[in-house]
Design goal:
CATH topology of the largest domain: D-Maltodextrin-Binding Protein, domain 2
Largest sheet: 5 strands, mixed
Strand content: 5-15%
Shape: globular
CATH architecture of the largest domain: 3-Layer(aba) Sandwich
Structural class: alpha/beta
CATH superfamily of the largest domain: Periplasmic binding protein-like II
CATH class of the largest domain: Alpha Beta
Number of helices: 19
Length: 448
Amino acid sequence: MEESKSPLSRREFLQLAGASAVSAALVACSPRKSATLPKDGSPVQLVYQDWSTDWFQPMAQQMLEEFHATHPHIRVFFTPDPENMAEQMLSDMQAGTAPDVFQGCCAHFPTWAQKGYTLNLGGYVNADLDQATIDDWNPAQYQAFFTRDGQQYGLPKYHGALALYYNKDLFDAYAIDYPDETWNHDDYLAAMQALTHDLNGDGQTDLWGSMLDISWDRLQIHVNGWGGHFVNPDDPADCLMNEPESMAALEWLRARMWDDKVMATNLDVHNVSTRQAFINQQVAMVEDGSWALKDILLGATFRVGVAPFPSGPDRKVTLATTDGFGIYAGTKHPDEAWELVKFLISKDYGRAMARANFLQPARASLVNDWVGYIREEFPEKAKDMNIAAFADGHINDYSVTSEIFANMAEATRFTSAAWEQIFTLGQSPIEQIQNVCLQIEAAQQEKE
């Protein structure tokens, strides 16, 4: 619709929400109120904020035309995520100017919920969503959108799953067997060692075995694979990063980067993204998600393979991302915002995201459609690709989600600083995590 394409500034978009300041507690919703039009009879106006990537806004605008056609009493204005989105959203929420409906994920989404800025969706979900819909989502992902006290702050947007991409041409060149579902971390290390090379003879490594993002959930899944945790599952104030299993996993990663030098650091690849380092053939493998698939297929000039994530010494795990949709607790129009969220979690919107950029659907019933879109657009590159590897954790029930402290904002602040020193710069030993745990636990006590 024309209104949804108006070139308004971010400030103007957010002012449309007209939200009042919210209380620090999560707000319980009261579903099934009658929609309230403004006194002049004009549609209720909502602001919907989501990804700023080039492909997303045109897709969203097209889908919002369908929403407007079936919801004439609601007019939705799309605005892209700002830079420094996690921090900016906190400021907007504190100021009472946050968008009515938004996407969130990872560590920042539960942080907003902990601070009381997200609407409790539980009443709406109970009233409007049947069990078949809920069962269509990955249980681990769905449960990740609840706070410890049972408040439901989000619903799944898509099911980002982590797997191991590999360069088939390089594996063939060095006569290495392709990774498969039987691989463990010993197999992974052996392949990294065999694939790390100084290609031009200048004494400097040009090709590394693998790479991962230094972030909360990407590190956590290695810890889980060793049998450890970041957070005590029974106590969100108890830090377990300093336990032997956790420390062993983190040391394994540090040693691969700074002792063996078979895993590339950001500095090694000149700060390009993990997927771009793989496309550039700076790394032979990369730990990345289904969300990177289209970029990799578009950019790769070699044959791409995908395998399930290697098993750890204790168990097999992979990541299910916690990308979801939420409603601002300060919205003036919670019922209309819920109507929009129902549209965003629909099969039609899931298919639109899957078709536009191969986002792996949150609904298991759409996985075959998603695979079809990939094979249709890239018939040659994808014909021998094990796309099902991304769904393996969902199908075989070994997916995990981000572990969340009671005071997540402080936990991420302490860990980010430590991980930069340990992994990115290689300037601190893994024992620094001992002090980080003490800082995190002190911050949890302050929250209480």
